[in-house]
Specification:
- The structure is a single chain.
- 32% of the residues lie in helices and 17% in strands.
- The chain has an 8-stranded parallel β-barrel. The protein has a 5-stranded antiparallel sheet with strand order 1-17-14-13-12, with helices on one face. A two-stranded antiparallel ribbon has the order 5-6.
- It has helices at residues 28-33, 46-49, 55-58, 62-68, 109-121, 140-144, 176-193, 208-219, 234-237, 246-256, 263-275, 287-293, 296-299, 302-315, 348-361, and strands at residues 20-21, 40-44, 72-75, 125-130, 134-136, 168-170, 197-200, 225-228, 242-244, 279-282, 319-323, 368-371, 380-386, 394-400, 406-408, 417-419, 424-429.
- The two termini are 22 Å apart.
- The chain has a domain at 37-245 and 283-356: TIM Barrel (Alpha-Beta Barrel), CATH 3.20.20.
- It has 15 helices and 17 strands.
- By secondary structure, it is an alpha/beta fold.
Length: 430
């Protein structure tokens, strides 16, 4: 037995009967009665989510998200956007002018509160973006507390070093006032508005001791989920529940471009060594990737390739992210500084695919992963997932990562397996 990212072993030929494929026989209500411990997170860019681009316009779409299999909504920054030195027509949502207010283009505080209550009424949770590293240039803090900002050798306040984020000013966490003000803002949304946690922008750039203090303070109010945009293992030690699985995402892009499929084994090995059992968030896109790189359709070889990639990301242990528009195969690259509405009527069949995939994912939590060896390791990913080492049921996932047919002889079956281009299978083990 070879121990890899979680539990990775070689299964001997003939050790199990052929499994039955998972179908849609299980009622959706049964699938969703128990939410997985690692949530399905749905990222919303309020500006682009509806033609109106408002909190109120989101509410009629919540039932559809619940039916899709979403456990938690993550709203990109909801705060007023800075006008000074802004980029594009509307500015970056990550240039925050006021941490305790809502963007008036999105609605009022009362309308946001109503949205939170409607999300909770559907047994979903909501987290919002926290941009703790920097502020807009017209944030009141620059006038009231200029000492809170990082300065260059000439004494000038600067944007974050080593970046092109010229529309924001870098905060200096050596200043106790910065820490106190940011913790106060974090408490406000949890304590007064009732959100369920934060996705923390560029969390690696903020001191870890700040996160330890702030997260502990929030959890003295209520349980919260904390998602870090970052990859430093110290983020988990500081209290974060999840961080970004950039390494598996990058490996998947390489594999779909032609790298050997079993590259994933090496990546999962390294992930296990670096993070242990700490949870990670898997994805095939997010707002940055869609804006600056491309959509899953372009990155993974069209509709079939994007679906195959989503199967892998959704069935590896950890949380799974869906970015608005991804579930209908929207081919648009959604810019951060402009208004582009998701084309919701693009591909209804893609939405059905995601609903089916998330229903299958939700049937049990995946704590154990067994990657299976076979004679087409360069072209086919094959693995099984179980709730625990002694679990009697599980799923076998087989994915052709190539845009061509592949035939191979698996060790778990006496018969050859033929997979069409980008074909994937999720089979029930019992």
């Amino acid at each position: 037995m070879r121990v890899l990212a979680l539990v990775v072993c070689l299964l001997l030929a003939g050790c199990a009967d052929s499994p039955d494929p998972i179908t849609s026989d299980a009622p959706a209500s049964e699938v969703q009665e128990t939410a997985p411990s690692d949530p399905v997170i749905y990222e919303v860019f309020v500006r682009s989510f509806t033609p109106e681009g408002t909190f109120g316009a989101m509410i009629p779409r919540l039932d559809g998200l619940k039916e899709l299999g979403v456990d938690m909504l993550w709203l990109m920054p909801i705060h007023p956007v800075g006008e000074a030195r802004k980029k594009g027509t509307l500015g970056s949502p990550y240039a925050i002018r006021d941490y305790k207010a809502v963007n008036p283009r999105f609605g009022t505080m009362e309308e946001f509160q109503a949205l939170v209550e409607e999300i909770h009424a559907r047994d979903m949770r909501i987290i919002i973006d926290l941009v703790a590293n920097h502020t807009a240039w017209d944030n009141a803090w620059l006038d009231e507390h200029p000492e809170w900002y990082t300065r260059d050798d000439n004494g000038e306040i600067i944007h974050p070093a080593g970046t092109d984020w010229t529309d924001v000013a870098d905060l200096n966490y050596d200043e106790p006032g910065v820490r106190a003000a940011m913790r106060d803002a974090m408490r406000f949304w949890v304590e007064e508005v009732g959100i369920d946690g934060y996705r923390c922008d560029v969390a690696d750039l903020v001191p870890m001791d700040f996160w330890s203090e702030a997260i502990a303070e929030l959890r003295s109010i209520k349980p919260v989920l904390m998602l870090a945009e970052g990859s430093d293992p110290e983020l988990h030690a500081s209290g974060f529940d999840l961080n970004y699985a950039w390494d598996t995402y990058s490996a998947m892009k390489d594999i779909w471009r032609g790298a050997p499929a079993d590259t994933l084994l090496t990546v999962l090995d390294a992930e296990r060594e670096r993070y242990g059992d700490d949870a990670r968030m898997r994805f095939t896109t997010n707002h940055d990737e869609t804006a600056w790189d491309d959509t899953p359709l372009a990155l993974f070889g069209g509709t079939a390739g994007a679906q195959a990639a989503a199967v892998v990301a959704a069935t590896l242990p950890g949380a799974f992210l869906v970015y608005n528009g991804q579930e209908v195969g929207d081919p648009q690259r959604i810019p951060l500084f402009e208004k582009t509405t998701v084309a919701w009527d693009t591909d209804p069949a893609m939405r059905s695919f995601y609903a089916d995939l998330l229903a299958q994912r939700a049937q049990f939590d995946s704590g154990i992963l067994e990657l299976l060896e076979h004679d087409a390791m360069a072209d086919v990913l094959a693995y099984e997932r179980y709730e625990s080492a002694d679990a009697g049921v599980g799923q076998r996932i087989t994915v052709n990562v190539r845009n061509r047919a592949v035939t191979f002889s698996p060790r778990w079956s006496a018969d050859p397996v033929e997979l069409a281009p980008y074909e994937w299978r999720i089979e029930f083990l019992h």
